[in-house]
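Sequence design from tokenized structure. All designs in this work follow the same two-part layout: the structure record, then the generated sequence. An example of the structure record is given first.
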């Protein structure tokens, strides 16, 4: 069974950058679509970005388009979320999910906290 572990979160200032990692074990992430989501206090879980199993067709929410980039390194069994020009409203727990295709997220990580101060 695929297990996902996120890392790379932290406390940064507005305008800074962070790179989150989603490392998989127990299986190859290369055959899975991977998505990033975030959960902020008092809000519903929000889709952030996703990438196909071959690295194809990355997609982004309007709120992060142009600032965030999702990529994958199948040789490291890891998917990344590069976050630039961070804003206080990006503060949330970021989770990665994997599944056979977008929208079918069978596996979830525990999340990593990102806090952006103004």
């Amino acid at each position: 069974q695929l297990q996902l572990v996120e890392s790379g979160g932290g406390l940064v200032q507005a305008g800074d950058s962070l790179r989150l990692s989603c490392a998989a074990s127990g299986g190859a992430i290369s055959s899975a679509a991977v998505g990033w989501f975030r959960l902020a206090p008092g809000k519903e879980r929000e889709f952030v970005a996703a990438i196909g199993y071959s690295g194809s067709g990355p997609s982004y929410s309007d709120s992060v388009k142009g600032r965030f980039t999702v990529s994958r390194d199948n040789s490291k069994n890891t998917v990344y979320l590069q976050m630039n020009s961070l804003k206080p409203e990006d503060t949330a727990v970021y989770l990665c999910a994997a599944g056979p295709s977008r929208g079918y997220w069978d596996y979830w990580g525990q999340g990593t906290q990102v806090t952006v101060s103004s």
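The radius of gyration is 13 Å. We note this feature because it recurs in several other targets discussed in the main text.
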